[in-house]
Amino acid sequence: MDSNIAQAVQEELTCVICVNTLIDPVTIDCGHSFCRPCLCLSWEEAQTPARCPVCRVPFQQRDFSTDILLKRLVSIARKASFRQFLSSEEHAFKTNEKIKRMLCRVDKNMLCSPSQKHQANRHCPMEGAAEQHREKILKEMRSVWERIQEIQRIINEEGRIIDEWVSYVTMHKVITSDIYEMLHPNFQEERKQYSEILTNEETVVLQQLKKREAQMLQKKKDLRKLYQELVKTYQKPDVELLQNVKYILARCEAMLVFMPKTMKPELSAHPIPGLIDSLSQYGREFFFGHETQNINMMFDHVQMFGPTCAVSFLNFDGINYFAVSGAQIFCSGKHYWELSVDDSLDWAVGIYRNCKTMNEPVIIDPEDVFLLLCVKDDIGYSIFTTSPMLRHYIEKPLGKIGIFLDLENGSVSFLNVAKSSLIWRYPTSSFHFPVRAFYSTGHKLPLIM
Q1: Which of 108, 189, 217, 422 has the greatest number of C-beta atoms within 10 Å?
Q2: Is CATH 2.60.120.920 the right assignment for the domain spanning 275-441?
């Protein structure tokens, strides 16, 4: 091939970002082509939206397919360049040319002479073996890049959790102070001590979260460095690549084995002396109905069918649960009851606005539903309350949940009975309407205590 033509072809196969031969080439919508790793690294640091490095056209898409034609042309050009190199250096290793073009399939990481030890081994041309290893490197590059993105998601999530943790403990101090004021207005020293316990736990967990965040940032930095080393290894001449590839692939395997999970902080269930005894005075005979009805509850709406005071059916995010609604309508006063949640992984307890007419489907505003939810997820479980939807960073209650309904100030509280601790208390004047009790479980009907 004419040298000018060869040079022109090589220029067309060069990435404008790294100024090297294209690696795993991708062509974006504007028609320009780049190395996939160059584009990934460039767009990772870019402001949204990302732009083409050549024409500056903005792009939202981040996931592109390999340009197969360009990839084949790059491979052909690389092999042609290697053979040209061998030809130009023929005088330097006439007797060793055949040896240098052989790769032992058994050792795979070394060039070997056809000695007696390796006479039985199958050999292949060096450039063919180098291309096979480049495919392995590409595969590892994609895996490393996916891990980098996964760790970034974890970093973003843990940053959000840090902010929510500080806010959550602050809210918990406020609602606990309200409970002390209601039950023990003269216990100022005990209330102060309780607040200090929460502050100390907040500080310890916050330090753990920030340490974890720093570890994640370092892990991302290390993986990014490894990714760049893979790119450099891919670009090396065949002989150097074959000599170094085993080491870099082993490093990839070691670094990709461990993948950290998001840390979920939990506030301990600190007991409040006399809490359950003080509220038990408002306990009363309590029961749920048993007529069939169907309740579909999603977080954009609550739709109820059938008569009131009935065995119900709850649909939560596409999963079906048994549920019941209370027979009593609460219009005034203070009321306390307990429900067992020991045997259920997913449950919901609380109250919802009473509907006067239930013969026709009734849409209940989500702001009129006050539930404590335990939902099984990938990291075990999560605790939420509705109206508004709020994640709770508190240990999972076992045994019984206490519900204290105070219609004098329009609030409902949830308690961990076994620990005599407060889970959550809705602010005063959260609602001003008659309500019914609600209970849902993933696999059985409730046990009323």
Answers
A1: 422
A2: yes
